[in-house]
Amino acid sequence: MAEAHPVGFRWVMKAKERGARVIHVDPRYGRTSQLADTHVPIRAGTDVAFLGGLIRHVIETESYFKEYVVSYTNASTIVCDAFRDTEDLDGVFSGFNADSGSYDSASWGYEDCVVGFSAGVHEHATQAFSEHTGAGMDLGGVRHDDTLQDPRCVFQVLRRHFSRYTPEMVERICGISREQFMAVADALIANSGRERTGMFCYANGWTQHSEAVQMIRSAAILQLLLGNVGRPGGGIMAMRGHASIQGSTDIPTLYDLLPGYLHMPRAREGHLTLKDYIGVSKVDRGWWSHFDAYIVSMLKAWFGEAATKENDYGFGWLPKLTGNHSHFSTTLRTLDGGVEGMFVMGQNPAVGSQHSGLQRRALAKLKWLVVRDMAEIETATFWRDSPEVQSGEFSAEAIQTEVFLMPAASHVEKEGTFTNTQRLVQFRDKALQPPGDARSELWFMHHLARRVKAHYAGSERGRDWPIVNLTWDYPEYGDIREPDVEAVIKEINGYEVATDKPVSSFDELRNDGSTACGCWIYSGIFAGGVNQARRRDPGDISAPGGIVSPEWAWAWPANRRILYNRASADLAGRPWSERKRYVWWDEQEEKWTGYDVPDFPVTKRPDYVAPADSHGMDAISGSDPFIMMADGRGWLFSPSGLLDGPMPTHYEPLESPVPNLLYPKLDGNPAAIRWHRPENPYHAAGDPRYPLVATTFRLTEHHTAGGMSRTVPWLIELQPEMFAEIDPQLAADRGIEDGGWMTIFTERAEIEARAKVTDRIRPVRVDGRVIHQVALPWHWGYSGLSIGDTTNELVVLSGDPNVSIQDDKAFTCDIRAGRRKGASTARLAGVAIVGHHIAPNEDDPSAENPAEPPGGDSAQSSAARDSQGGESS
To answer: Residue 764: enclosing H or E segment and its boundaries?
Structure first.
């Protein structure tokens, strides 16, 4: 966090000054480790084993916050008797189909409960909050055991599941000592309960794994057990690597979500009418019972007067998903000639995406490519100076891709909002005019849309309806006709259709077409016609609750700073302690009050008991804080929504030098996405040619793939060239000197880097075997003022089953002294790719007989996937 999020880490250091204890769990000793009280160097990719050990320890020592766990989580809920755990089935849960590598989650439900979503179809499937929180689940008759003794209650199921995650097993898997593990466990327990809370912060160290979602789930389970959710100083912070990554998931750049985490309709699930779509999305209990108001209001914002009840408010013209359209699937589809054109904005796949050589070869198959950036990045120049062109694999003349480079304005050259990691939306004014033809994203998309609409104007073809009727009436100002960003904010906020009056909250949105709203969770950001994100009043931070600063900018939803904050009070509505006082029930006023906006119906009494036959928010009792969940409880066990199991399980990374000590029959997450193609080879588990574990990290001085930093001389002076960190023993074994050249290679590619021989990355002992690790920054490319190989060349295309993110924080490789051979980084010996033949590298022992991917390159392995980037194989 100190390295990648230095401004945010300032507040960690402020907390440390006040006595907070800081623990850093990371394979590499970095800037955060130096400033932390404790550094725990686990083996890369073993986080679930480490967290699972902590969960077991908290349960077995009865250190969990019992009143919180019994009342606010689903610990007491009885699970379906058809459910079978990984402990029963050698590492997989009930419902696993080995041929498709996917699950039918029907047996994961509560007792006598039918789950509305089956995870048998393998997509990039966040499945949105609706299905993740219990859509289609009849919870009226669910049985509970508040003693937590029933063998089929969630608490006991969880206990058995993690029973083998002992400190000794954690030591054998993670490569840390029992003493290191116990120090973390003791610190977490000591800092939890009524009087104290603890927080987890994570970023790509958890997200870039083949079981990334389950790593984060592990932390959520641990925090729920300790009572650290919905309370000040608790929770889980997803550290964002850019200024508004949170905003780009709220109003999404993700292909499978609509604004406000409404999922995209899916053709194969029969979402052909609005009624069909709402029928599988609207939840009978909890806050998602308002789903229909949010989707109808969004359609009214998009299509205006043309959206009527008679035509389903235009729903029929929304695109319907037909399969996995995530980045890697699209790359492979492009490689196969299935994509003609592409827009690249704020991204640099030629060096910034995994298996970069494959990315560039895919770009060479496009007819046209639009790149918007502040510099001529590698994605814009791949056709003339990529390693493939330099090596002669193909020539610039042979590449038919027409590239349009559009200059972009920087963050200080445009106005608008940034949404940060805690959902705080802050408006920024423009400080400088952008130079020359550089324009903001808003300007570019606005004028592009105007031209497209002008082209289709007057068309009477049915398929053109959504373009012809798309509302696009934002006012413009100035010489360059910049659209009014506050008009966009007003549309996002929502308004009454009849009066054009902005709504003050999402409570005012309706399902009858009388309101329009671009993103329901942002309703209130323009309440009263005032841009609430402009506010900058911190208030009296020395007063009780003053640190909440509710008049500083605006947070979604409803300017609420902590989600599920009903959990900061006990069952009777009293604060768990005066020290952690935050939101409470005022008996005299008969309402919830506090320092923050209560995340609960304000007048619902804490002693309200929902009748068994109630619906909507009436089905949420006064002691159920987690109102987005159908049962109002925090989920220790997920009966629906996840595609790789209701509980986290330790799986080795897809490429690992060691077997799974808990489940020896499995190589990696059995539900992970593996694209088995000749040009995307995987390393078999334990492949002796690749005995080292590679992991990636960021540098403060550079920004992601380097497009914004490798053109800045003073930043290059601070971090001048690509390097790799290795430990002294490994360096001695391979004859590599500190500061000398070394080559890192996988089946996909090889790259060169300067060697940094250091104890910052250390070998670990895994079940008696010494495993060495290599740490690699990934900010370099082949253009700019500082040129170097990119780490992303080495990484295979793979995906977490829930979100399709790659496994690049832990993969296998090997190294040798000296520079790489030749101009090409590719090592795909003899593989023909899109008409280009890659010659074997010199001195490549695998060139004669390239390794077969594990399971073959047919679609027969237990996790075979989507070789064409479309539907499952």
So the answer is: strand 764-766
| 97, 120 contact by CB (below 8 A) | yes
Residue 557 preceded by cis peptide, ω within 30: yes
**Residue 21, φ and ψ in degrees, nearest 5:** -100, 130
747-790 per-position pLDDT tens digit? 999 999 999 999 999 999 999 999 999 999 999 999 999 999 99
Angle at 291 between CA 290 and CA 292, to 5 degrees: 95
Compute the distance between CA of residue 370 and CA of residue 248 in angstroms, rounded to an integer: 20
Distance CA 775, CA 770 (A): 16
Closest by CA position to 169, among listed 661, 639, 656: 661
What is the C-alpha to C-alpha distance for residues 745 and 844, in angstroms, rounded to an integer? Answer: 10
Residue linked to tokens 């699937």: 329
pTM: 0.93
For the chain, the C-alpha Rg in angstroms (whole number) is 27
Longest dimension (CA), the chain: 82
pLDDT tens per residue across span 793-838: 999 999 999 999 999 999 999 999 999 988 778 876 445 444 444 4
- Under 8 Å between Cβ of 866 and 673: yes
Cβ(259)–Cβ(253) under 8 Å? no
Give the DSSP H or E segment for 278.
Answer: helix 274-281
Question: Which CA distances in Å does 137 have to 133, 387, 646, 807?
Answer: 9, 53, 15, 33
Angle, to 10 degrees, between the axis of helix 47-60 and the axis of helix 212-226?
20
Q: Quote the tokens at residue 109.
A: 């439900």
For residues 258 and 252, is the Cβ–Cβ distance under 8 A?
A: yes
Q: Compute CA 827 distance to the chain's CA centroid, rounded to the nearest angstrom.
A: 30
Q: How many CA atoms lie within 13 A of 359 on its CB side?
A: 28
Kindly report the number of other CB atoms within 10 A of residue 680's CB atom: 25
What is the C-alpha separation between 601 and 283, in angstroms, rounded?
A: 17
Q: How many CA atoms lie within 13 A of 820 on its CB side?
A: 25
Q: Look at the block and give the residue holding tokens 């889980």.
A: 236
